[in-house]
Amino acid sequence: MYASGALTPQRTHFHTFDTPGDALALDGGRTLPSHTVAYQTWGHLNADRSNAILIFHALSGDSHVTGTHVDGRTGWWDLMVGPGMAFDTDRYFIICANVLGGCKGSTGPGSTNPATDRPYAMDFPVITINDMVRAQRPLLRLLGIEKLQAVTGGSMGGMLTLAFTQLYPDMAEHAIVMASAHTNHAQAIAWNEIGRRAIIADPLWLEGNYYDSPQGPPKQGLAIARMIGHVTYISEGAMDRKFGRALQTGTKESFTFGIDYAVESYLAYQGNIFHQRFDPNSYLYITRAIDYFDFAAKTNGDLTAAFAETRTRFHFFSYDADWLYSPERNETMTLAAQAAGRDAVHHKIHAPLGHDAFLVLKEPQTELIREFLS
After folding, report:
1. CA–CA separation, 34 vs 20, rounded Å?
2. Which among 155, 235, 318, 326 is annotated as catalytic?
3. Domain residue spans in the chain?
4. Residue 4: pLDDT above 50?
5. What percent of the chain has pLDDT over 90?
6. pLDDT tens across 113-161, in order?
7. Looking at 182, 275, 347, 355, which residue is catalytic?
8. Which of 202, 322, 346, 347 is catalytic?
9. Domain 188-286 has CATH 3.30.413.10
């Protein structure tokens, strides 16, 4: 029933929207006269162009969802996207773009500012989740798509999914929101702010103007921000099971401030590799956009009224050990959507890992999504 052909190596495509009609008015009051979208696609559009699925990535993701990229990278959601997978590339035309403000080809703070011919750096406008969604609408038009079979994403990608259903209520038949929330709670904002402060406090940040610095970017600040963020993605129980109080080397503590524990070594590794693929300024801009997101802002905090502005069928996925975006927050969204007359279902999945479970679980997500889409 489900084909299992291999995916061909993927290339990232780039399109710059730079005609007068492409100017992107931003929530903060500024306008980008042009912007580039980096994107990838898988599968084929059917005759009536009704089988397209738009995937939004999370904070540190990009457009390379699945398969092997021509540069050797593997996809960040190989378990869920591909031939015979939940998002079946033999059935659906899959699209994923790097978000506005990112650092993987779409316009962001590291991009060239046409007014100065230098990187935007902190001259790049502060953006919102809604701005990120609006930036991708011209891409769908470019691809000849006016109706989506589904829109989906996890974590920040779930926020982008919610925003899409509100901004373009008649475009998506289904919305699959995973490990997400309708707005960031105070503790999540606090963790994001600590991460941003770590970057800004790094002497190599240089007010964001580090792109031509011989000393390079603020690696240490970004590493600390990544370490902080990573702790929020994994549950307390998963941390204990994986590391406990195991020592990294030796049989007793070193009585120094070096790395003693295995968990310290793990976080140091996560932080140290992150700067190789991510721009510190993009981290500032994207986390700020996450903090600003409020699905019910236009309805004065009335979540039911916010869902009443949509026309989409919703499936919410939460994970019982996720303390960043808890099952209770997803249940609140589900009940509000139902109260608004929307078709909405909440799946609470047992996943000891915590928030990152949506990235690494295959079942029961796969069967639930197959049933929903069919």
Report:
1. 8
2. 155
3. 13-184+293-373, 188-286
4. no
5. 95
6. 999 999 999 999 999 999 999 999 999 999 999 999 999 999 999 999 9
7. 355
8. 322
9. no
Cα 337 to the chain's mean position, in Å? 22
Structure tokens at 69: 């990229």
Give 14's strand partners. Answer: 38
pLDDT value, residue 233: 95
| 155 included as an active-site residue | yes
34: annotated active-site residue: no
68-85 average pLDDT score: 95
State the chain's mean pLDDT as an integer.
95
The token duo for 216 is: 């390079």
Domains 13-184+293-373 and 188-286 share a fold: no
Average pLDDT over residues 228-237: 95
Residue 6 pLDDT: 59
pLDDT band at 200 (very low <50, low <70, confident <90, very high): very high
Q: What is the pLDDT of residues 18-68, one digit of tens each?
A: 998 999 999 999 999 999 999 999 999 999 999 999 999 999 999 999 999
Q: How many residues does the chain have?
A: 374
302 is catalytic: no
Query: What's the CA gap between 107 and 195, in Å, rounded?
Result: 22
Please tell me the CATH code under which domain 13-184+293-373 is placed: 3.40.50.1820
